[in-house]
């Protein structure tokens, strides 16, 4: 049975000791921030099977029958079967999950909550820049800028520090003959030929197929391509939409989690040896209601789960100050209560991963309003 001692057993010192997006080729460390837009159901992704109230709340509301069997994460938690590759990383000590976590935001607007998630502030629109952008000046300032695999620069990377965005074009796709002719035109120009070749390679990696749609494996490989360059970006942001599961959650969430799982696996494969120096954080704007609604879904909630993966991660753990799911323990009588601040996770990972003073990160990036976590990254 889960109780709050789990938190103590998994590293109380971690939370009591104050302590991540790139910037520069002067470090071999890579950080990837995956934003899960729409509010992922953390109770379905990492199921608290050791809490007796969980079965009472969720019953048979879980993965679809053909999804497979949940993967045990110890006696108290189980992983959604769609996250099989991430589960394998967990077994190897290269992934961990932080449960009952949320930003300071306690309302139920996606837009406001995403703003708080990305700015690292305490209220929606209280900050005008992103927490990753504020982190950049603390890192070695050489190499290519931090990059977002997105149509526009997400709030997390907006600010005074240089950052860029890349996305496959949504315009009509040029046919192979036209591309070949353009390639011949640039063949004699050393600079343009290289740029053209890079663009074609990026287009392919992004999965910009004839329909103009990206695919998760292509997205992960593309991000890895930018990060693996000797003087390439050291921080990347990836956006995954579609987590707002008010109805028909079982099948939809299964597909979403497979997508996330594929992106993480593709990042690992694409980075190769650089995976050992990489941390990937996947977080969402808020959790969902503890009990399902009447349409086979869940509604906007509070506490959720954050996923951390990478060769630099001290994984194989579910880190949580578990609040319990009994009726009296629920936030507003309906949500998993949040016991950990997402900003503490962000600050702790950033400081440890890039060997920065944790209090400096807390002060410069999060206005000193968090106590950074520690013990999450290998020394």
TrEMBL record:
Top-rank taxon: Bacteria
Keywords assigned: Signal
InterPro entries in the record: DUF1501 (IPR010869)
Signal peptide range: 1-23
Regions crossing the membrane: none
Protein name: DUF1501 domain-containing protein
